[in-house]
């Protein structure tokens, strides 16, 4: 099938949030550490009444209802999450409660830190493009509750879920043949204590792993674009148009795509990431910036590169915490960041790290941020997915000018994002801390009945009613 991509997208985030500037005062850290240093304004969190199953039940129900999709139309359901509450039973099986008579649904859960959702997505795309496909839709669900022990990682928490309906003839198409991946063993962030929701984190190492994975994926992505472009030129009999990212020039640079979306642990790291792409473009350009092949005689690019010339011999692997380089890169890439990345960090900034849904929340914001559907047509978006441990991929999306009707529906369905976000309830840092303590103490208790109030949920939200003595969870909907 042609044009496999997204036909519908839904985002869920919790009703409660804590203000990061209030948290700075409460945590007794210097003013601006979380808001400027990390680039985070608000952080969403869940009380003991929500768990990973309820989050995913909510986002799937909302997507099906808003798009009038009957569950019999779905043949594959994949969940990406790192919020593990059962070592055997998948979240997917809980979602089957929504599927009534349709039990013929492939797929289970996929886990590797923030990357599980991307793997689930790739499984769905691959299924539709394979001989196993039975003609029905695939549904990808990414969900997580990101909580850290009190300390410097706590302000980088968050929570949320994204569901995406995948099928052929989509308006938001995954480009074929130019996915790049970088997978490696690292102990940067992991969850070895199965009784705790909190990860063990080596913060500095996790940042280094993230940025080095980005370098690797981007370099390989650029190579694959060049190979695909060459292949396209050589095979005259191939009537397929080349992926959009390769159509104008065989050298891919930061200028070749309209937007760059990243997994967002916190917005500041994303800004550094875009800067890093510029550095990679610079290093792969010729030493004379004015004849940079990457930027094809672009005067602006020549200016951007001129300041970077003194870093030409920097060893990439030793440059992740080089402040002088980082400042120059951030300055050189500021306009690019403001136009191609920052506007789409709206949910990340307001909710925090949602783990697996973080990247796809960025995609939802990309659609939401455009005033009209026409403005989006023909645009190319590059996405970078990272999960500690580590697994990472870079891939791209093209907004097609076919099927604008579905694109309009998706656009309309996301219009309520900001009103929903604005209607959340702010909680004092002390109450937030108490809630974290409650989750800590009751996580995995059985039997257990959550004590928090359903008032603090959006209408239509599923919530955990009780856990019985055999650890069996039951849910209700507000
Ligand atoms: N005003 C402005 N900026 C400030 C202020 C201030 N008052 N105080 C500090 N800053 C800046 C620092 O200079 C630093 O900037 P830099 O990153 O450009 O150097 C930034 O704020 C953070 O301050 P640090 O002291 O470096 O922060 P700390 O070490 O306390 O924690 C960290 C940051 C490591 C990200 C921590 O929050 C963490 O471990 N988070 C979880 C792991 C994580 O998210 N890793 C990312 C990839 S893996 C993943 O997705 C889970």
TrEMBL record:
Function: Catalyzes the condensation of acetyl-CoA with acetoacetyl-CoA to form HMG-CoA.
Gene3D superfamilies the UniProt entry points to: 3.40.47.10
Enzyme type, top EC level: transferase
An annotated Gene Ontology molecular function: hydroxymethylglutaryl-CoA synthase activity
The keyword Transcription belongs to this UniProt entry's keyword annotation: no
Residues holding CoA: 152, 206, 268, 272
InterPro entries listed in its UniProt record: HMG_CoA_synt_AS, HMG_CoA_synt_C_dom, HMG_CoA_synth_N, HMG_CoA_synthase_euk, Thiolase-like
One Pfam family linked to the record: HMG_CoA_synt_N
Family per similarity comment: Belongs to the thiolase-like superfamily. HMG-CoA synthase family.
Organism: Helobdella robusta (Californian leech)
All residue ranges annotated as the Hydroxymethylglutaryl-coenzyme A synthase N-terminal domain in the record: 1-171
Catalytic residues (UniProt): 82, 114, 263
Record-given protein name: Hydroxymethylglutaryl-CoA synthase
Pathway annotation from the record: Metabolic intermediate biosynthesis; (R)-mevalonate biosynthesis; (R)-mevalonate from acetyl-CoA: step 2/3
Entry EC number(s): 2.3.3.10
Domain Hydroxymethylglutaryl-coenzyme A synthase C-terminal, residue spans: 172-478
Record field: catalytic activity: acetoacetyl-CoA + acetyl-CoA + H2O = (3S)-3-hydroxy-3-methylglutaryl-CoA + CoA + H(+)
GO biological process, one term: farnesyl diphosphate biosynthetic process, mevalonate pathway
UniProt KW keywords: Lipid biosynthesis, Lipid metabolism, Steroid biosynthesis, Steroid metabolism, Sterol biosynthesis, Sterol metabolism, Transferase
Keyword Lipid metabolism: yes
């Amino acid at each position: 099938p042609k044009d496999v991509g997204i036909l519908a997208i839904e985002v869920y985030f919790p009703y409660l949030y804590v203000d990061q500037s209030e948290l700075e005062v409460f945590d007794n850290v210097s003013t601006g550490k979380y808001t400027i240093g990390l680039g985070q304004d608000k952080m969403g969190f869940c009380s003991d009444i929500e768990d990973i199953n309820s989050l995913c039940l909510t986002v799937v129900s909302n997507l099906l209802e808003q798009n009038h999709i009957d569950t019999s139309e779905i043949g594959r359901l994949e969940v990406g999450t790192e919020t593990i509450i059962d070592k055997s039973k998948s979240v997917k099986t809980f979602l089957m409660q929504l599927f009534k008579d349709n039990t013929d649904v492939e797929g289970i859960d996929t886990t590797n830190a923030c990357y599980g959702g991307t793997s689930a997505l790739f499984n769905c795309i691959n299924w539709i493009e394979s001989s196993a496909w039975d003609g029905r839709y695939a549904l990808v669900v990414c969900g997580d509750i990101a909580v850290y022990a009190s300390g410097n990682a706590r302000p980088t928490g968050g929570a949320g879920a994204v569901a995406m309906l995948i099928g052929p003839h989509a308006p938001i198409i995954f480009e074929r043949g130019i996915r790049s991946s970088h997978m490696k063993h690292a102990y940067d962030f992991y969850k070895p204590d199965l009784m705790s929701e909190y990860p063990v984190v080596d913060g500095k190492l996790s940042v280094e792993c993230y940025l080095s994975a980005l370098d690797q994926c981007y370099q390989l992505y650029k190579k694959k674009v060049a190979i695909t472009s060459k292949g396209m030129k050589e095979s005259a009999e191939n009537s397929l148009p080349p992926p959009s990212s390769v159509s104008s020039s065989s050298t891919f640079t930061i200028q070749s795509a309209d937007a760059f979306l990243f997994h967002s642990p916190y917005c500041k790291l994303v800004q550094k990431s875009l800067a890093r792409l510029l550095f990679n473009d610079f290093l792969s350009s010729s030493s004379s910036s004015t004849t940079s092949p990457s930027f094809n005689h672009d005067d602006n690019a020549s200016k951007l590169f001129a300041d970077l010339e003194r870093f030409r011999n920097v060893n990439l692997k030793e440059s992740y915490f080089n402040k002088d380089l980082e400042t120059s890169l951030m300055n050189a890439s500021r306009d690019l960041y403001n136009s191609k990345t920052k506007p789409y960090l709206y949910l990340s900034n307001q909710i925090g790290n949602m783990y697996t849904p973080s990247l796809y929340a960025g995609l939802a914001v990309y659609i939401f941020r455009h005033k009209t559907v026409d403005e989006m047509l023909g645009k190319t978006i590059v996405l970078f997915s990272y999960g500690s441990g580590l697994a990472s991929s870079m891939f791209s999306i093209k907004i097609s000018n076919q099927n604008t009707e579905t694109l309009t529906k998706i656009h309309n369905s996301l219009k309520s994002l900001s009103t929903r976000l604005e209607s959340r309830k702010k909680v004092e840092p002390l109450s937030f801390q108490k809630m974290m303590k409650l989750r800590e103490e009751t996580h995995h208790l059985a039997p257990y009945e959550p004590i928090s109030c359903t008032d603090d949920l959006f209408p239509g939200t599923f919530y955990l009613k009780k856990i019985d003595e055999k650890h069996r969870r039951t849910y209700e909907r507000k």
